[in-house]
Amino acid sequence: MPPDLNLRISPRTVQQETVGKLRLAILSGLFQPGSRLIESQLCAQLGISRPSLREALRSLEAERLIEIVPNRGPSIPALSWEVATAIYEVRELLEVEAAGRCASRISPEQLGELERSLSAFEEAASSNDSIAQVMTAADFYSIILANCGNPILEEVHRGLVARISFFRGRSMSLEGRAQSSLAEMREIFESIAAGDEKAARKASKQHVLRAKAAAKISMDSDI
Amino acid sequence: MPPDLNLRISPRTVQQETVGKLRLAILSGLFQPGSRLIESQLCAQLGISRPSLREALRSLEAERLIEIVPNRGPSIPALSWEVATAIYEVRELLEVEAAGRCASRISPEQLGELERSLSAFEEAASSNDSIAQVMTAADFYSIILANCGNPILEEVHRGLVARISFFRGRSMSLEGRAQSSLAEMREIFESIAAGDEKAARKASKQHVLRAKAAAKISMDSDI
DNA sequence: ATTGAAAGAATGTCAGACAATCCTGTTGAC
DNA sequence: GTCAACAGGATTGTCTGACATTCTTTCAAT
Q1: Of A19, A81, A150, which to mutate for an interface test with B (greatest number of B Cβ within 10 Å)?
Q2: 3-class secondary structure, A100
Q3: Has domain A81-221 been given CATH number 1.20.120.530?
Q4: Which of A4, A200, B98, B108 has the maximum number of C-beta atoms within 10 A of its C-beta?
Q5: A152 vs B70: CB contact, 8 Å cut-off?
Q6: Inter-axis angle of helices B165-172 and B197-221, to 10 degrees?
């Protein structure tokens, strides 16, 4: 009998599956901020039992992707600009550090990956598919964070970025934002490719600051 | 009838209560790293049902205070030195930033609080109560983080510090560590009190680096 | 001692139930 | 007409009990 290549891959439980589905739904903006999630509805839609759903909701609550108020149940938090600012500031701190470290330690293979993801974003940027833009941009950062040599930096960053995903889609739709974003990312890439830690830090900082500014504009522009 | 002073305090649910109790138990080192938690036992000890317990466990899992492997259940993660290092590095990033911001924005009242917490640590440091030392030191950082003007910085920092609580108790017990820690903290306080942002950053960085070194020693000294 | 199989323990998941709480629309008083 | 009390339904918090699946451990056989 051929050896079972399925080497101890943890089986995906209903709970994990559910967290994944809900997280994706939230990140893609399927739910309106402030809107409530009804347990019975979700159970029916997902075809799972209430205990399983509630476990998944607790996980998402701890990730701050939903809020659960006793006796009122889960809802999508309305992100205030104040909190968003705070997140962008910490994101800057982490991302700058990651880019700097990345510049002096990334492997050639991973650098190739990074270049490829930049190309993917370039293609998305020239289209009008803001979802693709957000996704490919996220890939780009992921690679940087994955190669900074600090798994915690990566983990915390992922958690924060998830919480501002709401803005990311909107600001990407801003006139010209995708193109300027591309230029900024290219500069980050060039710095990392050149192994220039200082330049990578600077470019990364610039990028986050501009992203934050774009988010602010997109937030003020409507409502 | 006297007005009900219980002004819309969210009722504490069984789940919240349980998370609080378990978190405290974990942080005080009641469970051995690597040891498994048996649902039925915890249910019996806490006097709650399995669904409630499991919800609480999912919250703690998302906080990374426990691990849950499918079909094996929850356990206390064994913190590798590699991960601990990564946590200390990110903690440094956050704490340095917080101390710097704090120096230029803390209010006189809060500065008084900070001084008081330093005194409390001073007292604990001269005793041999390492639990009191860890707690009062934690108060000191909390005040700094709470006054840095960025709630996310505070939130992330709290989460990280919780994960290395295991080391904090041990390294505080090291010969002379409490006293040198006190000196470092005093320097941070003086810098903040003087409103010297740069000095606060430097002192804070120094402190985290020393704490990390102490943790390494305490880890190597026994197995 | 190593291997293998069977018994026991623990988890993953579900269904159903009920009390406490919240929300909503209606009624009634001013 | 506006506001307040209220009744009813909807929703959540929590428990009990159950069962299949998956470890884990014990014990026997080689």
Answers
A1: A150
A2: helix
A3: yes
A4: A200
A5: no
A6: 80
Question: Which residues are paired to A68 by β-bridges?
Answer: A74
| Of B20, B29, B65, nearest in space to B167 by CA | B29
Query: Phi, psi (5° rounding) for residue A195?
Result: 70, 20
Interface contacts (A, B; CB < 8 Å): 81
DSSP output for A183-197: HHHHHHHHHHHTT-H
Strand A67-69 and strand A73-75: the pairing is: antiparallel
Closest-CA distance, B182 to chain A, in angstroms, reads 28
Beta bridge partners of A69: A73
Which residue's structure tokens are 């009190």? B193
Closest listed residue to residue A168, CA positions, set A79, A37, A93, A57: A79
Cα–Cα dist B101/B106, whole Å = 8
Q: Position of tokens 């609550």?
A: A61
Running DSSP on this structure, what letter comes out for residue B36? B
A16 interaction partners in chain B (CB closer than 8 Å) = 70
Is B14-75 a CATH 1.10.10.10 domain? yes
| Domain ranges within chain A, ordered by starting residue | 14-75, 81-221
Instruction: Return per-residue pLDDT of chain A as tens, 223 residues.
Output: 333 334 445 668 999 999 999 999 999 999 999 999 999 999 999 999 999 999 999 999 999 999 999 999 999 999 999 999 999 999 999 999 999 999 999 999 999 999 999 999 999 999 988 889 999 999 999 999 999 999 999 999 999 999 999 888 888 888 889 999 999 999 999 999 999 999 999 999 999 999 999 999 998 886 5
